[in-house]
Design brief:
This protein has 13 helices and 12 strands. By secondary structure, it is of the alpha/beta class.
């Protein structure tokens, strides 16, 4: 077994106060700040419903300080309220007296949504679990909780107080979403269907390169298809657009060097795009990668899709 973890089935939650960490970070309209897609909010429902008569305190974040979509979670709470028949309350506080009083006033079966946890400076730091357990957030809120349930799979790579700190001072279990995702990863890692193809893109190149190395080194993946900004790093590693390489920071150049090593060792298993899509005045325009200069790409091209 790759993972050994507790779930809601392993604890008694009736009458308990449960801190439920979820990831409801949602796309917002830049002007109105309305939630454009509530799929992450709906994904919390299985866990909340299974908590039944527990007092549930939801902790979550929206974006990060300095971003246009770094907002309160009041609208998120309203959306959750629609799905849970008015069992949901919101408090415009995270760990102060107002939040503490709201937690104490919770009744069995009710859900309280705290405000954006990243409004607390400590939540924007990372460290070993025992270190972040010593933060004011954990020390202030933990006396009010009996159990913590982590259902924030999309943020599980972060070692922040709300994600790992509470688990140092009380029992921690996986929520239903986390449980499903960990079970799926275990199936892929231990006994993947063949051929096993990974598609990796996005903007966080530093997170993707270790994954590429692991799945190819351990024979988990037969092929890895590269897209997003990961594509740019690997194309630079192939010697494309050398002028741009000179403009990179030391850390970005180090990623290019890692990509070059991966191509040298596993090049036959790494599939690169042959064309990409650009956004040109609102229109999709596809060009061959050989013609790229400094344009920002938004997607792979149709020829790549046909590979």
């Amino acid at each position: 077994m790759v993972f050994d973890f507790l779930t809601l089935d392993d604890v008694e939650t009736t009458g308990k106060t449960v801190f439920l960490r979820v990831d409801i970070n949602s796309p917002l309209d830049p002007v109105s700040k309305r939630i454009l897609n509530d799929s992450r909010i709906k994904a919390t429902l299985d866990t909340i419903n299974d908590l039944g008569d527990a007092r549930v305190v939801v902790g979550a974040h929206q974006s990060r300080p300095g971003k246009y979509d770094f907002t309160s979670l009041e609208l998120h709470a309203r959306v959750l309220q629609m799905y849970l028949n008015n069992r949901v309350r919101f408090v415009d506080d995270t760990m102060g007296e107002k939040a503490q009083r709201a937690i104490q006033e919770l009744r069995p079966g009710e859900v309280l949504v705290l405000d954006n946890l990243r409004m607390i400076d400590e939540e924007n730091m990372q460290g070993p679990p025992e270190e972040v357990a010593d933060t004011e957030m954990v020390k202030t809120l933990s006396p009010y909780f009996d159990i913590t349930a982590n259902d924030a799979f999309a943020a599980a790579h972060r070692s922040q107080p709300s994600l790992v700190g509470f688990g140092e001072v009380m029992p921690m279990v996986a929520g239903r979403l986390m449980e499903r995702e960990l079970d799926a990863i275990e199936r892929v890692v231990e006994d993947p269907d063949r051929p096993c193809v990974f598609i990796l893109g996005g903007v966080k190149v530093e997170d993707k390169i270790p994954v590429i190395r692991r799945v190819l080194r351990d024979g988990i993946a037969d092929r890895v298809l590269i897209g997003g900004l990961v594509r740019e790093t690997f194309h630079l590693a192939q010697g494309r657009n050398p002028g741009k390489l000179e403009m990179l920071s030391d850390s970005e150049r180090a990623l290019v060097e890692e990509a070059r090593e991966l191509l040298g060792e596993y090049g036959d298993s790494i599939v690169m795009p042959v064309d990409v899509a650009l956004d040109v005045k609102g229109a999709r325009v596809e060009i061959q990668v050989d013609s790229l200069t400094d344009e920002r790409t938004y997607d792979i091209g149709l020829n790549t899709l046909a590979l």
